[in-house]
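Why run this: before we spend reagent on co-expression, it is cheaper to look at a predicted model of the complex and decide which construct boundaries make sense. The entries below are exactly what would go into the expression plan.
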Amino acid sequence: MTTGPDSATDLFGALTGTDDPALGRLRERLAAAAERDGLLDIAYRTVDSPVGTLLLAATGEGLVRVAYDREDHDAVLAKLADAVSPRVLRAPARLDPVARQLEEYFARSRRTFELPLDFRLAKGFRRAVLTHLPDIGYGHTASYAQLAAAAGSPRAVRAVGTACATNPLPVVVPCHRVVRSDGSSGGYVGGEQAKLTLLNLEAAA
Amino acid sequence: MRPFERIVDEYGPVVLRVCRAVLGPADAEDAWSETFLAALRAYPDLPEGANVEAWLVTIAHRKAIDVTRARARRAVPVGEVPDRPSASGLPQDWDGDLWAALARLPDRQRMAVAYHYLAGLPYRDIAELTGGTTDAARRAAADGIRALRATYRPTSSVEGARP
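The model came back. Tokens follow.
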């Protein structure tokens, strides 16, 4: 019989399973306890949608990030950990109202979102632009130049483009309604196809 | 810093194994929950480059001590370690025979075995947690493994075998 340092793995086979149902319920319990104790700085979940899988993240103040698949959800979470807090957990409950309203939006039964929003990821002029985006009504579009004028800086057309491209809350804050003056859709954080999908969805309603 | 969710992904399973080996099926899940909640609280202050696994095992050790003391206070003496079903009712969650054998070890041996063989902690770190010298921790682990071999045979290698 040997008792060297590496000879005990056979003893613990009963403990070394990886696909463990206990971990699933423990993680749910941790998320609930973290919320209860005020330690859930960022809760997140994903939802499926006609424009792909969306990552939703919320602070205690409100929805802080909506991210498209092509933005790389892992990278987005890593950036949130750096920019806001590393206390990040998958915790769907806080995002239930967001998921529900998105589902209604994609089913064409909702035209505006009624959600607390946390704009902390957008600063200065970009933030000012984002706060004007909901003024563009459902099913309508505005040009980058019109939005620049609305934000009080008519010559900052390029900065408006940047603000839209870096919108931390796409879909919910409707940067997809900002299009080129020639009528073409222009770029989009979720890709041009996603922008067209959203514009067509709203036009058909 | 990495999102805490990634820490749970990476170390959740090993901390659960350690909690189960040290405390058994009845208390392991409470200890795991309290360990990760305390870790979440302290996480933003964890120094860059810290050994996350050793840090978590240290927290789990403190929680295990708390649970052990609480259990001693409310203990009703039982002649034999009960053959408990797994907490979830799923047999793959836990092997009652292994816990029965681990439960017969003195606390220090059971902890040394769990921290070294399941979490890979060096004996120097284990000595810091359980007190005593590095050599004493090494001896406790070796004695624990020897005692386990004498009383427990994994069901995976010999079907249905009992010591």
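Chain A touches chain B through 41 residues (CB under 8 Å). Residues 124-204 of chain A form a domain with the Arc Repressor Mutant, subunit A fold (CATH 1.10.10.10). Bring this page to Monday's planning discussion.
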